[in-house]
């Protein structure tokens, strides 16, 4: 062991264990096409999410609530906070909203 850490392995085979027999050889068996169709699982997941939300869930109201929370989050910023906010918007970290200024 050196001061920088343990010695490196001599090659990729040593780093990742022994090679599989036949790997990379022209006479190696063909790989099998292995696919899974998750469509039915996705439909079930979506149905369960909608059932959990309930019949009274209003997606537009939820979006309005998110917008209000976003506006409140960046409201009342002092000059330095506003500068940082503007820098983050300019860098593309935060989306530009309204007139480009945080809510007052």
Tally the beta strands: 0
Could you tell me the strand content as a percent range? under 5%
Mean pLDDT: 78
Q: What profile does the largest beta sheet have?
A: none
- N- and C-termini, Cα separation: 60 Å
The count of helical stretches stands at 4
Radius of gyration: 28 Å
User: Would you identify the regions where 5 or more consecutive residues have pLDDT less than 50?
Assistant: none
Provide the succession of SSEs: HHHH
The rough form would be described as: flat
Structural class: mainly alpha
- Binned, the helix content reads 40-55%
Write up what this structure looks like.
There is one protein chain. This protein has 104 residues and is mainly alpha-helical. The protein has helices at residues 12-16, 39-53, 59-73, 79-90. It is flat and about 70 Å long. The termini are far apart.
């Amino acid at each position: 062991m050196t001061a920088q850490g343990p010695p490196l392995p001599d090659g990729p085979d040593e780093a990742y264990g022994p090679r599989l027999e036949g790997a990379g050889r022209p006479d190696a068996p063909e790989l099998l096409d292995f696919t899974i169709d998750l469509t039915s699982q996705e439909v079930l997941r979506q149905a369960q999410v909608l059932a959990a939300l309930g019949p009274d869930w209003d997606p537009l109201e939820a979006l309005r609530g998110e917008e209000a929370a976003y506006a409140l989050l960046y409201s009342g910023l002092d000059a330095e906070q506003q500068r940082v906010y503007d820098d983050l918007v300019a860098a593309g970290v935060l989306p530009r909203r309204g007139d480009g200024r945080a809510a007052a």
